[in-house]
Design a protein that fits this description.
By secondary structure, the protein is mainly alpha-helical. The protein has three helices and no strands. It starts with about 25 loop residues before the first helix and ends in a 27-residue tail after the last helix.
């Protein structure tokens, strides 16, 4: 088993980590290709049609959507919390 160089609680070494301005790992071209494919497959309208075909497709869409939301949100709360989740697909929803 490989030995780890850093131990939990040790300070971060100077100049470690990703440098400011370093591009994301997924190149812009890949993002453009995915957006282009999404558009050619019908965009939002096509996605909605696909999701409406089966409950399994809807489940996959919701899983994907919720995976994109922030995971670690610090909140302090006292009292009752009422939340409403709304999906607005605009005029493309039909």
């Amino acid at each position: 088993m490989a030995k780890h160089r850093f131990k939990k609680g040790d300070p971060k070494p100077p100049n470690s980590g990703r440098k400011k301005g370093t591009p994301n790992k997924i190149p812009r071209k890949v993002k453009e290709d995915i957006e282009n494919a999404f558009t050619k497959l019908g965009g939002v309208t096509g996605l909605i049609k696909w999701a409406k075909k089966s409950n399994k497709n809807q489940e996959k869409l919701y899983d994907w959507y919720f995976s994109m939301l922030p995971k670690n949100v610090d909140t302090k709360h006292s009292g009752e919390l009422i939340a409403k989740l709304t999906f607005d697909f605009g005029d493309n929803g039909e």
